[in-house]
Amino acid sequence: MCGRFTLTADAEQLMALFQLSFFPEGYVPRFNISPSQQVLSAVKAAEGYKAGYLKWGLVPFWVKDAKKWKPLINARAESLEEKASFKHLLDKRRCIIFADGYYEWKEEGGKKRPYRIVKQDGKPFAFAGLWDKNDGEAGGLPTCTIITVPANGELGEIHDRMPAIFTAREEIAAWLDKSKPFPEVRPLLKTAPENLFYAYEVSPAVNSPKNESEACIRPAEEE
């Protein structure tokens, strides 16, 4: 699964890299993004892509009492078309969620040690996501989920799942194109190549969602 991630890039870098036509005010780098928080995302706009905020943890439109619903932070790519929470979103409510790293915990000797997974070149990337709007959701903000796929080699030794990640503009363009039916873009939801990412152990400061400082991404050996 993917339960925490980072987005430490500045706004100018994100706008240029992802060719965004709109970027919301108030953006600040994030070092420990957690479920139920607002996440920077994008959907297709008339020209380019429009960035904005979604609440992480999907609440489908048909849920009558959002307070009693457990928000869905992840969605397995293999079963999207089978799940009532997701199948109505696959054609028209696809989104991307911006990140430049994500965290996973590896069990070793009875303890869980945190690792941050980043691209070899350090650049930001995008998670494949789905979004929905529930009128009963507090604040009225649309919600989202991050799609996951089986993890590869080294990353699979830390956790058996990883986010479905886009690094190419062509992939993002296809995923956000609402004229393309889901079966046409389903092949994009694949495990990332082994040599594209690497993991490093980080400070246990990341264990608490309350910690939101650069200490969260600091290599463990520097502690």
Automatic annotation (TrEMBL):
It is an enzyme of class 3 (hydrolase). GO terms for biological process: protein-DNA covalent cross-linking repair; proteolysis. The keyword DNA damage applies. Keywords: Covalent protein-DNA linkage, DNA damage, DNA-binding, Hydrolase, Lyase, Protease. GO terms for molecular function: lyase activity; peptidase activity; single-stranded DNA binding. The keyword Repeat does not apply. Its EC number is 3.4.-.-. Belongs to the SOS response-associated peptidase family. This is Abasic site processing protein. It comes from Caldibacillus debilis.
